[in-house]
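Researcher: Hi, I'm a grad student and pretty new to this. My advisor asked me to get structures for two proteins we've been looking at. I'm not sure of the right format, so I'll just paste the first sequence and hope you can take it from there.
Model: That works fine. Here's the first sequence with its structure tokens right after it:
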Amino acid sequence: MKSIDFKKHKLFLVETIFFAVIIALLIIGGIYSILFPVIDDVRRNDYDTDYLAGIYSADKDDFSKIATLIERYNIEDISHGDFIIKSEKYFYKDTLYYQTDSELTDDQKSKITDLAYKLFDKYDFDVIESENEKVSFSYTNQSIDLVYSKSKTPHIGDEGLCKSIATNWYVVEY
């Protein structure tokens, strides 16, 4: 086998190092893309009734404010894009999509977006949605929601378990 004298072929040495670095980055990126969802799911296994009751207690003023704003501004969904039907009216701000039929002023958008972004960033919700006088803060892969409902017992479907954590606030597990 013929050996290469790298002192004479410096360009070949640079190309070899560059190629090795690119291959290493691709391998690390592949491993990261496989492991990150697994790590994310392991972290989210702790999302249970006690966890949601705790985050509600920690930021109950913010949760109450955003639930009020969502109802007032007729916001249907807030998400990272997963639940948005592009044919419906929506706006995008601070990495989040807001679906609404209302014409909102910039001031109204700022009120809702600042608070929504803070809660998404802090608690990593998948979606906040409003329907039938109920606002749900959802972790969809974990089948658990923090729910604000004006009715005494929110309709959660046949398969859900509902636990009251405060007046008009519930944790629903599916």
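Researcher: Oh nice, that was easy. Here's the second one.
Model: And its structure:
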Amino acid sequence: MTAAPSHSRTPLAPSRVVHAPAWLGCLLAIVAASGCTGHARLTLIPLHSSTLTPRSPLEYTVSPQECYWWVDEEDRLCLAMGYHNFSILGDLTRDAFELSFVFKDPPPEDEKVYVARRDVARALWHRSAWHLRLRARTGNVAIERRSDDILAGRLRLTCSSEEFWILTGWQRKSPVLIQGQFTAVHNPEQGRTLLQRIEESNPRGSDSGKVTFEPGR
């Protein structure tokens, strides 16, 4: 009688632990960070033609990596957003843009279009020794509530502008159009810090046009 063949099992290969690549962890960290700080993408368009050349930029794009909203003591909706580069040489290589709003009305329950005139919007742009400050003249900001903590919106503003150089001080320049979209997270502490920094060099109020001091750092 023929012996039954023995069925030897092939040993299973040891299980391998799959490690996520390092870049994936960095990407997730960036996404998580942007969700906690908000973000925006804005385009600045100078509304002048006298200095236009074949090579001069038609527009400038900035992407704030912080965007916050909160409600102040007067039940007004406040927004502040900012972009800052990693400046190796401090002010010599600094590139920073900050924009803030103080609306007369509270946040929307669903969605709302806010009028942005006069003291509603302020902005500062620093590039090394060059500075630009902006004040809203006309415009609208359309905002919708995404959740209890998140507001999203689009904006289009026509702003007056003043340019600062060390040798000349503040000089009035041509109007600038700012347009873009944003997602803001509720964070009163960080938002007020941004707003107060803008107010140092570009304060709101009836006498703000007479301010002549150097921009705050």
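Researcher: Is there anything I should tell my advisor about the second?
Model: You could mention this: The longest helix spans residues 22-37.
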